[in-house]
Here is the input.
Amino acid sequence: MAEQPSWIQRLLAVPNDNPWKTIGVAVVLCLVCSIVVSATAVGLRDLQEANKREEVRRNILEVSGLMRPGGDIDELFKQVEPRVVDLRTGSFSDAVDHASYIQRDAARDPEMSVALTPDQDIASIRRKAHYATVYLVKDSQDAVSTVILPVHGYGLWSTLYGYLAVKPDGREVIGLQFYEHAETPGLGGEVDNPRWRSQWPGKLLSDDDGKLRIEVVKGTAASGPEGVHQVDGLAGATLTSRGVNNLVRFWVDENGFGLFLNNLQQELADNG
Here is the structure.
């Protein structure tokens, strides 16, 4: 008994001008392509996750000033200790694992976050996660020299995600760097410009009385004593500048990491 032709052979035997053959070939190609794409995505998942983790560590090293040209990220990151903070109490917490915790996802979960009132929500983030992962840089004596805070808030077109590095006193800025946003290139996108970022180190978040003073001003920062609390606004990007101003002020104030920074300062003072 002769072997029956397969469905592919039968399809190929149909005349090329037959519309059903065109549809059939298109369906087969779509199926093959979807299988290839899905297999590739699954196969590269581990590599993508590893690249994502390395990018996070690179940004943390850069904003803290630890990154060196040609430096080994694994070796440099040994100076950094990730810790989870409960933003409701300002204390370190073991309630979630920093290695698997994603603050962005937690902020969408009503059980893991809190809705902000309009008066509180100057950064336009709507909800704030209960927990956040901070990064402590230790010196050779194992003392904390830098505290790196994850910050985010809305600019003109997008939510900007980044890190703010401050000294243990919770007052002096070491650096500000964004790793994700969709602001306009050449305008709001200038938040990535090293020249603009270089204004942040040495700025003071608050005055001697503890009052929050940091501000991204319209135009140029003052040259007198007020200038220590001011950063130049981005030319032609008023709304992005305002967004950066608001997100920084939100996260270092009482609704963000303010309580944690106060607790850390007191803890470090008590330990000498």
Q: What stands out?
A: Strands lie at 80-86, 91-92, 113-115, 127-129, 131-138, 144-154, 159-166, 173-180, 215-217, 230-232.
